[in-house]
Amino acid sequence: MTLAQSSKSVELVQKYAEAAYQLTALGWLDDLKAVRERLSAAPELLGALSDPEQPAEERQAQLDQTLPAGIRPDVREFLNILVREGHLGLLDGVITSINKLANPDAAAQSATVTAAVPFTREEQETFRQRLHSKYGDHLDVTFRVDSGVLGGVILQVGDKVVDGSLAGRLTALHDRLLAIH
What we know:
Structural class: alpha+beta
Helix content: 55-70%
Strand content: 5-15%
Radius of gyration: 21 Å
Number of strands: 4
Distance between the termini: 84 Å
Largest sheet: 4 strands, mixed
Order of helices and strands: HHHHHEHEEEH
Number of domains: 2
Strand order of the largest sheet: 2-1-3-4
């Protein structure tokens, strides 16, 4: 084998390894995102699954009932570990980090859309499409529910925050009124 053939082989091995890694990571991402969507639609469930006062076995049984059909066994075990350790609240960060690892050349960013009530699937898809058209397809979008928002939404993309919530507008009005007096 010549040096050129050896170099070509190393290149091919690297390309195949990267492709296999990306396929694995992307499969994990799809499963983890499906679980995140189910949890974001039921924030009380995330609280119950993260509650250290409940026995780990009960939390894992609750998680098993929540998981989508056909989820990969290795992802299921990973999620069980997060629940057992009380770290399920870290799922968003794990998804963002895997996305960055799987797409190192892309400027992977994350966005969080927070509202007082859960979004429907159609509303989530509309938000995703708009955000992807503005920031690119590598944007990882998370939906959260926070009753303190009162109405409207808070959007965070990277370190930029756009507060279109009723609570934010009331706070701004309060601050302006205090500044007048």
